[in-house]
Amino acid sequence: MAVPTRRSFWNNLFLSPQETRLRALWRLLIQSTALILLMACLSVPLVIPVLLKQSGGRVLILGSTFVEFIGVTTTVYLARRLLDRRSFASLGFRFTPAAILDILAGLIIAGLVMGLIFLCLFSLGWLHFDGFAWQFEPPAQVLVNSLLAALLFLLVGWSEELLSRGYHLQTIASGLNRGWGVVLSSAVFGCLHLLNPGASWISTLGIFVAGLFLAFGYLRTGQLWLSIGLHIGWNFFEGPVFGFLVSGTDFYRISRVTVSGPVLWTGGAFGPEAGLIVLPALVVGVGLIFLYSKMRGRLTPGPLIPPEADSGSNPA
User: Fold this and answer.
1) Which residues on adjacent β-strands are paired with residue 257?
2) Which of 242, 239, 221, 182 is CA-nearest to residue 100?
3) Res 55 pLDDT > 60
4) Does the pTM exceed 0.85?
5) What is the arithmetic mean of pLDDT over 205-221?
6) Backbone angles phi, psi at 249, to 5 degrees
7) What are the backbone dihedrals phi and psi of residue 141, each rounded to the nearest 5 degrees, phi first?
């Protein structure tokens, strides 16, 4: 009978008990540190135009979003391969026909939820519709700015879902369990928006709840595509389509609206995520995700892919 090998204190502190890789906490710390350093280096070209006052607000927002996209994608990919010893695809990037369906469903669900918020505020007299962008500027400019907004929110949706519902949630789950993975990754997601304009503890709580909503899409499908579609759709419909501020940021709005209701309900200078109005809307969104995922199981062959927070697949 083989005698179990006793591991040293340092091995227990740094290495996973199941396999020879770093524990989840150390993997998270290394990935986070690498992300901060890489983004700091990539951001240097953006600092110079600011100091010279030669760069506008939209250019800076787009530039910083590209930096975030490169930084998150690069560090998560390397961490997944080198630290987690798993394939990048195992985070939830299986390419099947259902992936396109998930993205489209996420966009539609987010549009319906944000439309519900718009209608509620309008019916309560807390929102006034001022007109469309083409009434105030040339149509060509509206088209260009709308396409730039779509690009911006596509990159944001990919980066934030890859980081929060991808690496954070699933790495925490591998060290603790899936429930803690959802809660802690959503808490970090909320804290990452603390530096946004108009942020407060209420907006942080609202983003935390939105993180739970986005995580539900991942849990129902086992893939990240639905969550990515939800995130892109939420931001695009919130800002350009319905004219709200997006987490304190005003990049471009096709619809021009004025929100004047109670800040506690409307979210004020941060946008609907910081208002109580977002809570019933998210409940509706959760119901739509549940109905879609049930329908998805009938439309696509085989059962729903179970979300494996830490599958044992070898790196591709």
Assistant:
1) 129
2) 221
3) no
4) yes
5) 96
6) -110, 135
7) -70, -35
Which amino acid, 121?
L
- C-alpha 239/C-alpha 251 separation (Å) is 8
**154-174 pLDDT per residue, tens:** 999 999 999 999 999 999 999
* 132: β partners: 255
Q: What is the average pLDDT score of the chain?
A: 88
pLDDT for position 311: 44
What pairing do the DSSP bridges indicate for beta strands 127-132 and 255-259?
antiparallel
What angle is formed at CA 153 by the lines to CA 161 and CA 243, rounded to 5 degrees? Answer: 125
- The mean per-residue pLDDT over the stretch 221-241 comes to 97
- What pLDDT is attached to residue 53? 55
Query: What does the H/E/C string look like for the chain?
Result: CCCCCCCCHHHHHHECCCCCCECHHHHHHHHHHHHHHHHHHHCHHHHHHHHCCCCCHHHHHHHHHHHHHHHHHHHHHHHHHHHCCCCHHHHCCCCCHHHHHHHHHHHHHHHHHHHHHHHHHHHCCCEEEEEEHHHCCCHHHHHHHHHHHHHHHHHHHHHHHHHHHHHHHHHHHHHCCHHHHHHHHHHHHHHCCCCCCCCCHHHHHHHHHHHHHHHHHHHHHCCCHHHHHHHHHHHHHHHHHCCCCECCECCCCCEEEEECCCHHHHCCCCCHHHCCCHHHHHHHHHHHHHHHHHHHHHHCCCCCCCCCCCCCCCCC
> Tokens 């918020």 identify what position?
117
Q: Which residue has the higher pLDDT, 307 or 17?
A: 17
Say whether pLDDT at 227 is over 70. Answer: yes
Residues, the chain, total?
316
